[in-house]
Amino acid sequence: MEPIDHLATRVVVPLRREAAFGPRAKNLNPLLSIGEDSVVLDTSALGAVPLAELRKTAANLDDSRALIQEALDTLFGAY
Prior knowledge:
By secondary structure, the protein is an alpha+beta fold. It has a single domain (9-76), classed as Roll (SH3 type barrels). It is built from two helices and five strands. It has helices spanning 18-21, 65-76, and strands spanning 9-12, 15-17, 31-34, 37-41, 47-50. The strands form two sheets. It has a three-stranded antiparallel beta sheet. The protein has a two-stranded antiparallel sheet with strand order 1-5. It is globular and about 35 Å long.
């Protein structure tokens, strides 16, 4: 059992299509790949979502962990 398994929410960061996002902020909005799609991590739009509202997993972004961590560090002031 994971430490967050009992929580009714998950913290999520939306992914936006690169073409629809506009200018990206350095380190805050890394460009990621999901299959053939380029998406932007919209880090400043992070929020809690009820687990019941989440659908299937869109992708595994383990390979982008360093970029995601850097974006979160930038958002929270650890830059």
